[in-house]
Fold these 2 entries.
Entry 1:
Amino acid sequence: MRRGAVGLGLAVFAGCLAVAAPRLASASDERLLWDAPRVFSIQPRPFRLGHEFQLGLGVLPTDAFYVGAVAAASYTFHFTDFWAWEIAGGGYSLNFDTALKSELLNDYGVAPVGGGGERISAFVMSGLVVKPLFGKVALWNDTLTYGETFFTVSSGAMNKGKFTRFAMGLGVGLRLWWTPVVSWRIDLRDLMSFNRPLPEHSFFLLISTAFSVARAPESK
Amino acid sequence: MKARLLVIVVGLGLSWVGIGVGPGAVAAAPLAPVAPAGQKPAASSGADADAGSVGPPAAGADAIDPAIFTTAIEDYYAGRYADAAAGFWGYVHFGDAAAEQYEWSQFFLAESLRALGMYHAAVQYYATVAKTRQRPEILPEALRRLETLARERPISEGLVYDDVIYDSDFGALPQELVDWVGYVQGLRDYQHEFVAWGGRHFAGIGGTSRYRLQADYVMAVHALAHQRDDAAVTMLGTIVGSKVDDPVTKNRAQLALARLLFDLERFPEAQAAYERVQQISLSFEQAQLLLEKAWTAYQGKDFRRAMGYLHALDAPSYERYFLPDAFLLRGLIFKELCHFIAAKRVVRAFNSRYGRTLAGLHARAPLASLERIVNGATQEGEIARRTAFMKTLANERLLVDRYDAAWEDTGLDKHLRRLYDLELREQRRAFERAFEGEADAVAKELLVADEQMRLLDYEIGLDIFKRLKISSARQTKEEALEVPYDSANVYYEFDDEYWSDELHSYEYFITNRCFDTAEVAP
């Protein structure tokens, strides 16, 4: 059994080598024989962020017993075109019951313990933003639109039920610029609250408008 | 290169009449009815009726029914332009030149033809109205239409500028038309070296008119052509910095300024001036601009940028253009950086691109039979404008077939075909006259480029086998070729797809492979 696994591993390795070697060799040959240099189009970033103020509406959709409608706002300072600090960001959630609680009561004659668990009512966070992806896309084959994708890591406090707990957030977002000052954002975040060693996850989807005091594009 | 640039600048300036000629919609016909005046006009010649003696003479002099005009006007304002054109043509052709609505019929015939897309025929009738000037009230409108068409489309410059405008005195006109007429008359004066007269004509142009800038441009080019380089630089700089809203002329002046600074060997200033030139269309002018920017970067030893511009010239849209210099410059840069295999490949690519044409030249084949020579001879200047105009004429002539049914009774279709055939013959004759000289120049340019490439090939061979003392040779210290992850610039790596907005921003990340033969410190 063990020998068979080793043999299988060797076979897979050999296979990978066989597939990769010609590609490696051809890439090397190309560099040597054709002397192909790398070619870049180097363009000043048309949109650069400085102080960013974000206002948006979001939703907390994943809890079975309620859906949260969230009004959110934040302020972010962009150190560079890659690093930024979301100095303060937070949201207030207006929660609405789903049909689950009444269905349980009507169909099975049971009620959830504690009303279905604690509900997020507000949160405040601060965190790091990295923006590795910047690009341009053709919108309706007519207009060139610029956008970026960013990732966030943040921590803060979350008011959940009667308690305020330590919370962390991991997020990914997409920004499309409308003007140098105004851009549109879609954020998806995993809000984690810690009242036990393992966190409770709540996904948070936010659509927002960002207003930025822009930095001027720099020439090359 | 320098002589070529100077010729381009001078040629562009002194032959530049059709400013802004290019595709564009012409304004729609006026919706408000234009009331024909009821005065009895003086008789005009029968030739005017047929717009330049094209078509049979007028017949049935006094019998023309005024209802024909009324019906045609109704058709015109109802958008039935083909029927309207037939009516107006009938009134003009079968009526007497002294008929009451004769000039109005000519004007509305032009309007109808313009609405149908037959711009040359429309120009013929606007020009007739402007030339005869029997109805002073129509004159400004006819001139205004001519000005718009001249600005937006290729037109018969001889007909409009020479026959109608150059030696005419139109009397009182609105200022915008005074500007245009003054500009055209002044331009022709400058072209004939009647500088004092040209100056007087230019002096009448308003300070905020686009033709003010165009007149200044003509004067700057004239100064350049007479070796007053410093004056030309100043004048072009003034045009570029002007507050008058005419981006086309400013851009042209910016380009002329960049070329002049290059010829004066002020390369950093030339580079900056070239960067300010706006080009958005994938035209020969843009290809030429890229090549000139490449030469400027090369003179400034910025090989990466130079190669980037040359890389943009490989875009499929530029393939048909005749730019043998691009191969020479690319080969030179590869040789300078000791990329000998790549340099050799450039020589082979040149032979592949132009080998057949060169063989044809060596075999003394007719120049008109060599495609690349024909492309090169017709890609810029007056002959390019004439070529574009001939294509327009051919396309407009085809439009006549659409209205055979509506025009057969009055013979307007035959008349328009004759009109277009006549102009096509005239343009073709002028084209052939100009082509001979242009083709000769292009053939010589290609032969010179071929000679340069052979010399380059030889020098590459010498460099490959250049002997070095191993003790004194060392690899040139390479400047960093790094792509920063965090930068105010975005680096889009080229992946075999050309984006038009990137054409002016390519850079080659290429290493210098040469050995530095300076003495090594002990």
Note: Chain A has two domains: 1-39, 51-213.
Entry 2:
Amino acid sequence: MPISIQHVSFGYDTRSSGSGTFSLCDVSTTITRGSITGLLGPNGCGKTTLLKLIAGVLRCGQGGIALNDRALAQFSKRELARHVALVPQETHPAFDFSVLDMVLMGRHPHLGTFQLEGPEDLSIAHSCLAATGTAHLAYRPFTTLSGGEKQRVVIASALAQEPEVLLLDEPTASLDLAYQLEVASLLARLNQDHEVTMVVATHDLNLAASLCDSLVLLRAGRILAQGPTRDVLTASMIQQLYDVETDVQVHEPSGHLTVVPIRRRPRP
Amino acid sequence: MTQVVTVPRPIRPRLALTVVGFGALALVTCLAAPLVGSTSISIARAFDRSIPFADNVDAQIFFLARMPRVLAAAVVGAALASAGVVLQALLRNPLATPFTLGVSAGAALGAMLAITLGATMTIGPLSAVPLASLAGAAIAATIVYALATRTGRPMSTSVLLLAGVTLNSFFSAVILMVQYMGDFTEAYRTIRWLMGDLDVGSFGPILAALPLIVAAVVIFALLPSSLNLLSVGADSAATRGVNVGRAQRLAFLSSALATSAAVSLAGPIGFVGIVVPHLVRLMVGVDHRVVLPTSALFGVAFLVACDLVSRTILAPVEVPVGVVTAMIGGPFFLWLLVRKG
């Protein structure tokens, strides 16, 4: 089991974070090697928090997360970053870094404090650019890219960490339809070719249906359901998760489930 | 919006080339500056070991009269420029300056009080005014740091920024009050202090500031790749293996050390900490592993040159160096911005 999450609870400190007072409560799940797991749930249900806990950005209040049977707390920051990479929702560098600079920063966990990247790191960065279809952008300033290009470059930067586990926080939010498909097929390809285990937080149920092997449904910080996509992604689950009535059908041409929202229906 | 970044060269030769180039520039500026002044001297004679030092007027003017001032400019220029780079990355704000955190206002208040109260205490080569300004800087830095980390969670850079700016205004108001209460002579001295002055008189004050500067430089050396990642975002940095809390604390500490050393030595000389890093970024790109050492070296050349202008342009009258840095830095900066756009 690459990632085992046992009875994890987490609360943001209410004094310092003001609005963000929700928490995760007794979350347990395991994520199998080579799988793509979707993390679904309404806004504020704890998806991003769970990703940050797995990435070691936040520390569990209670419970524990283990990677390859070793507790996250036993990893040094650099060591963990060689195993787990996180693609955040948005990336806004304060300075005009080039695309290649951004991808080379992914090599940070593989370098010592005073070590500069060498030819090998450069060739890894270029192959990550190639794998995400952004090689032609290498010398462009990152800030001048479109949303879809930025997202792919940030994914390339995460790949440069050579992680076993790639965590993605709403990778297709704010992308147009073509880029959504492109990023989705990129993730599927990376999962197959590089055997990267992925956890994808998303609001796009159809993306989850087409991309993910299994799903974890979070509501108000608790796990509502988890299991293989086909078992979990049902109209009644979605009703419980989002208070929305949907029609869930197998779409024959594409071979995966499709979810058509019908109306909002609050629970009695 | 379609400009192309022009430095695709790998980091190692790029870093070596810029450090050697800007190092040579800094060295030449430091050696040339003492030659210029009311009495013109020859560098060959100043370094001629066959003449005894006691008889070598050129050497005496070069090393004793002018070198301390040039060295003070070099140290202050390097400290302010690198503190600017570090704070701009820490706060993710290219407009931050070494004075944003209120450290310099604290130092100024300390100096004001020492001047106005006529304090005479000394410790080693440090007289009352630099001592009081160091104390003021330390108090200001402690207040800002305590506010930004008060909840025990990671440092809040927005609180850091707001607390610094607020403290700056508050201390400035107190300084005005102290000036208003003081007599005219003291008020003039305090205003002159605020304009910045590199005429330190001897090597003593520089040596006294040196431990702080050395400590800051040692910490600076640990920071550049963390600064790259911090300027992309704290979470991005954390997921790429940066110990964010530690990097932020070290960045704050080192820039506070460098700024307080510089301000206690020469007063708050503006513009160096923002103009130098920006000029350097326009010349060598934004990678902090190159920008930080280059800014320190270019800060040396910049402030030594500005001080040269300050003591020669209206000689024998001296123009305060803070006025010169603003006069040169401001328009040059605007010109580069226009040219770049």
Note: Chain B touches chain A at residues 1-5, 7-8, 10-12, 15, 88-89, 92-94, 151-153, 156, 221-222, 225, 228-229, 231-233, 235-236, 238-243, 281, 285-287, 289 (CB under 8 Å).
